[in-house]
Structure to design on (151 residues):
């Protein structure tokens, strides 16, 4: 007669139970540590839109500074300034286009006017229009942006 028991393997249900417990603990830890995917609040959405529109307004302000130095009497006086003015106008146009859905929610008619004005501004710069015309278009677009957010 022997004084010890023969070791026998763990039963399958014991292994499955330990695995299930480990899995449950892992899922619980993962859920606790996972970042929350909350939708932004209305205030956060408006603040983000306002920041985007501020960038577009800043770009339009640069157009009014660069373009008068770039063109004189329909001729290019400074190519660098002309390129900068066009880049800034296109940047404002891209920014407004990216936010178009949000802008349209605030004011659909103003959204359309803004889109048209920015397109006219880009064309005017490409056509080397008079600085006063470009300034008027940039100022009009900036006023449309300002009216959307009140800033």
């Amino acid at each position: 007669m022997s004084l010890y028991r023969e070791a026998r393997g763990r039963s399958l249900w014991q292994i499955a139970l330990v695995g299930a417990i480990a899995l449950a603990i892992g899922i619980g830890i993962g859920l606790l540590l996972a970042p929350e995917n909350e939708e932004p609040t209305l205030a956060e959405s408006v603040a983000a839109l306002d920041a985007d529109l501020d960038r577009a307004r800043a770009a339009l302000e640069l157009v009014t500074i660069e373009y008068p130095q770039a063109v004189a009497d329909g001729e290019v006086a400074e190519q660098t300034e002309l390129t900068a003015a066009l880049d800034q106008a296109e940047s404002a146009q891209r920014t407004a286009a990216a936010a178009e859905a949000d802008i349209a929610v605030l004011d659909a008619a103003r959204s359309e006017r803004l889109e048209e004005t920015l397109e006219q501004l880009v064309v005017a710069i490409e056509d080397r229009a008079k600085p006063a015309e470009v300034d008027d278009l940039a100022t009009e677009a900036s006023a449309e942006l300002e009216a959307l957010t009140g800033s």
Summary: Helices lie at 12-33, 42-70, 79-98, 100-106, 108-126, 131-149. The chain has a mean pLDDT of 85.
